[in-house]
Amino acid sequence: SESPEIKERAELARVLLDVIEEQGERQEVPPEIEVEAVRQLKLIELDVHMPDESTCSNCSTVKIKVDPFTTVAEAEQMMFRKVGLTFTKAFGLFEANDLEDALLMSNRRVMDVISSWDKSLDEEEKVTDVKNQKKKGKAKKDMLSDEEKPKPEYKYL
């Protein structure tokens, strides 16, 4: 086809196939922001939060632009350039919340890290839903009279 958009997408697909062959398959399902960026042939803009003096809240951020296959090591290099670090051995990207933090493996894809956060939130919601359903079921059982409550069945072999 003569369409420049189709040519651009075909070239991108060819490059990404080489990347996938070299780096291996994705570990997580891509988040919506990534799917939309790929659809529009754009990079994904991320805010990387810098620790401040309290280390529990992160006020300062640095923006970087990544593609679906950008590794943590590549993102660290972007950060080092933006912040102006020359001695980089003692620094790295972490994922953190108020309770814990963990150094990210340099070969992991940045968007897989973000996808894992979405998955964690989904799993947390599912656990909460199951707990709520159990509470409702227990409340219903408590309201039944002794005759209405299901009796255990014993089976003998």
From TrEMBL:
Gene3D superfamilies cross-referenced by the UniProt entry: Phosphatidylinositol 3-kinase Catalytic Subunit, Chain A, domain 1 (3.10.20.90)
One Pfam family in the UniProt entry: RA_2
Region named Disordered: 120-157
Basic and acidic residues bias (residue ranges): 140-157
Name of the protein in question: Uncharacterized protein
Source organism: Lotharella globosa
